[in-house]
Write a structure and sequence with these properties.
- The protein is mostly helical and about 190 residues long.
- The chain has a domain at about 5-110: Peroxidase, domain 1 (Orthogonal Bundle).
- Helices cover about 35% and strands about 0% of the residues.
- The protein is built from seven helices and two strands; from the N terminus they run H-H-H-H-H-E-H-H-E.
- It has a two-stranded antiparallel sheet.
- The chain is globular, with a radius of gyration of 18 Å.
- Belongs to the peroxidase family. Ascorbate peroxidase subfamily.
- Its EC number is 1.11.1.7.
- Keywords: Calcium, Disulfide bond, Heme, Iron, Metal-binding, Oxidoreductase, Peroxidase.
């Protein structure tokens, strides 16, 4: 993500060195513990970070509980890892967490059925490029994904009762693995 989008004003590496010197090690230890228990937490955290930063900047607004917040907005209902924390890298800290979180602002998030051109426009509006798009949209699955994100292309694509013709080869083993039900839960495939 661009430095402008990620780094809030007034942040710096080591912000908590005097007030909470173990802050980074606590976060790192928590993430490592969760990762050892469930390696799939890595893409979940990347997705959560992306969904937070894309809406209002990296302000933790996706963590705010409430009935009409980003956390309860349709694009964020499948986010996981709230109890985990985040991956460790040097990050300027000291930003103030947002006190505002509006479900309506998640419409800026690129949808999984949007065209590449539409997604490029949304990323460009945030100061991000095509490489950022590929890394962030593809990266937060890291080998597993929810069936909802692709099953519509395997079954009854555009009402044809067939697969999307753009998919050249779909092994029958894949088709039998993917649920044909339109489920919006956290079920994963592969």
């Amino acid at each position: 993500m661009s430095a402008t989008l990620v780094h809030g004003q007034g942040t710096r590496v080591g912000f908590y060195a005097n007030t909470c010197p173990r802050a980074e090690s606590i976060v790192s230890s928590t993430v490592a513990t969760h990762f050892r228990a469930n390696p799939a937490i890595a893409p979940a955290l990347l997705r959560m970070h992306f969904h937070d930063c894309f809406v209002r900047g990296c302000d933790a607004s996706v963590l705010i509980d409430g009935s009409n917040t980003e956390k309860t907005a349709p694009p964020n209902l499948g986010l996981r890892g709230y109890e985990t924390g985040g991956r460790s890298w040097l990050v300027p800290t000291g930003r103030r967490d947002s006190r505002v979180s509006l479900s309506s602002e998640t419409t800026d998030l690129p949808g999984f059925r949007e065209s590449i051109d539409s997604q490029k426009q949304k990323f460009s509006a945030k100061g991000l490029n095509t490489q950022d798009l590929v890394v962030l949209v593809g990266g937060h699955t890291i080998g597993t994904t929810a069936c909802q994100f692709f099953s519509y292309r395997l079954y009854n694509f555009n009402g044809t009762a067939s697969s999307d013709p753009a998919i050249k080869f779909i092994p029958s083993s894949t088709r039998s693995t993917v649920s044909t039900e339109r489920r919006w839960d956290k079920a994963s495939c592969f």
